[in-house]
Amino acid sequence: MKIAGGEGEAARPLLEEKPDVYFDGCPGCAMDRRKAENPGIPYGLFFHTWIINLVTCLPVSSLFPFLYFMIRDLGIAKKVEDIGFYAGFVGASYMLGRALTSIFWGILADRIGRKPIIVITTLSSLVFNTLFGLSMHYWMAISTRFLLGFLNGSLGTIRAYAVEVCRPEHHTIGLSLVNTSWAIALIIGPAIGGYFAQPTEKFPNLFSNDSLFGRFPYFLPCLFISIICFVVLISCIWLPETLHTHKVHNKEDQHPESLITYLSDSKEFDKQCSTSTKNKGLLTNWPLMSSIILFCIACFDDMAYSEIFSLWAESDKKYGGLSFSSEDVGNVLVVTGASILLYQTFIYPHIAQVLGLINSSHVATILSMVLLFTYPPMANLSRPWLSIVVNVASVLKSCSVATVVTCSFILQNNSVPQDQRATANGIATTLMSLFKAFAPAGAGIV
């Protein structure tokens, strides 16, 4: 059995499941039969997975443009200088809620299936995102954001689902698309929030001050996203389940062996160990935990970088910044987001195929660190070279992080059998949420 990470084997799972018998009435067996009969890329299922993850990410990113004004209008801040302080708690409440329940949702997805968790998450996004837009008090904004994260169980589940709807050679594409949906949400979400917030000021001919949108100036962007959630929720009726529900009397018949291999820089198998992950806790599964550690560090780096970049770019040049306007920063982020989509869709799968997962992570990590050292000297450049260099560096930095994150996704899912996959992703999501909650504060202090 080939092992993931080697040349040409980037997407092959460590625990390769090849059932000899298909059980009638088992949705997992039905999916396995479908994959066996249709060896091509499942574009329809990939798109469905992509759009589901997109709509659950939109509520996270859409509030960035109007959160400052929302906190101001709620009247909780006594001084203008305190608005950022209170806004930080609104953002952190979502991550805290998600961190508390991600493992629970993963365990539940391994018990009752992937589809119910996806449906619950989409429904909760619809309800609590709508309520957030109707917030008239600070405590309501905090509560609805917390519950939005608390009931968001799809992030880990959707990663497990993405590898279960396709053959091993297509895992790289499936998980890349999950990652690109977040990149697109970072473009679409702020655009929706910035364009539709405070509609009575921007579109006075369409919305009067006495209308619903005059009383709740931040309801329209939330309503717009909730309508999209409703459409996707209806589409989940046709979403196939992938979890096996039949009983296996002999677990070793389902997973006859587990070969876990670490790869050297020369892409040779230099260490092998045979173990049974079925009889072993997830926290003692080192291939799983090492990939989760890699994932969390990459997410911490990405969140800290995102926090610092805007502050640095908008700072005056006399303080070492770039004197960029908010529009300049927005243009850089749009170019970066679009580039990530193209990179993950068309370039990353080939890189992972040639270098393997571990070597791809090595190269991307080194490139990311080197790029960070190039940022301070950029303040000495003048336009138009400054804009060109910043855009190129931002694209390379984000693509490097995306490479590490996607590689870790694949390694995580290939390190465990199916009935532990959502739980493993839940652990990763919990730790990632904690890292992301601390990253902005830590980066701001530094």
Automatic annotation (TrEMBL):
GO cellular component assignments: membrane
Segments forming a coiled coil: none
UniProt cross-references to CDD domains, sorted A to Z: MFS_SLC46_TetA_like (cd17330)
Gene3D superfamilies: MFS general substrate transporter like domains (1.20.1250.20)
Keywords (A to Z) from UniProt: Membrane, Transmembrane, Transmembrane helix, Transport
Listed transmembrane segments: 43-71, 83-105, 117-140, 146-163, 175-198, 218-239, 288-309, 329-347, 354-373, 385-411
Keyword Flavoprotein attached: no
Cellular compartment(s): Membrane
Domain Major facilitator superfamily (MFS) profile span(s) in chain numbering: 45-446
Membrane topology: Multi-pass membrane protein
One Pfam family linked to the record: MFS_1
Main location: membrane
Protein name per Swiss-Prot or TrEMBL: Major facilitator superfamily (MFS) profile domain-containing protein
Source organism of this protein record: Urochloa decumbens
